[in-house]
Amino acid sequence: MTMVIKEEIGGIEIVCETGNYYFSPKGVDRGTRLMLETVPILEGDKVLDLGCGYGVVAIYAGKKVGGDHVVACDVLEEAVALTRENLSRNEIEGAKVLQSDGLKSIEDRDFTLILSNPPYHTDFSVAKGFIEDGFRKLAVGGRMALVTKRLDWYRNKMKSTFGGVKVVEAEEYYIFVSEKRAPYVHKEKKNQQIMSKKLQRKHKK
Q: CA geometry: angle at 18 spanning 17 and 21, to 5°?
């Protein structure tokens, strides 16, 4: 059975066709809504909706930054097709929607924001792949945001992968936000680089 839902998130109206075989078919999941209300999508962001379902995050992002700055993916072929239809229904053009097991089919490595509501009621193998592969697909300075109802494992995994994590508790949910930082240069190595540059300038004189 399919249905059409109409909702407003942060002042943005979203209209979606859903079905009983999709996650949260009767309305936008509360966790997803809280994540979108908490994590800012900035002008110029390139956004990945990881595990797009019927496309709520992709639509919201498309209305914020334009469809050509949005990529969405899902493991289910039916979800990919429905997300494309819902993007069109919301008059968003230019978004890329791909069938992908996690991020395996995602070639871009310059995302500035990855948003996901992972399947946290299963084991952690899917979330582990999302976080580790998401780190590799982000540009330096890019952010990854997840929303779940489980705290410890996600906090520890985001921190170990990114080097830090901000956790926002909202109702019964936790929103995790981590930033991909520039590679750390050891102080001794940095001093060696400075000395090498000084010697190079000296020899040129």
A: 155
196: left (phi over 0), alpha (psi -120 to 50) or beta: alpha
In 3D, which of 63, 78, 77 has the Cα closest to residue 25? Answer: 78
Asked if pLDDT for residue 200 goes beyond 70, the answer is no
b or e along 45-75 (b: 16 or more beta carbons within 10 Å of the residue's beta carbon)? bbbbbbbbbbbbbbbbbbbbbebebbbbbbe
**Total-model pTM:** 0.87
Distance, in Å, from the CA atom of 55 to the CA atom of 157, rounded to the nearest integer, reads 26
The per-residue pLDDT for 189 is 54
Assigned CATH topology for domain 30-204: Rossmann fold (3.40.50)
Q: On the CB side of 161, how many CA atoms lie within 13 Å of its CA? A: 26
**H helices of the chain, where?**
30-38, 56-65, 77-89, 125-137, 152-162, 187-204
Cα 156 off chain centre by:
18
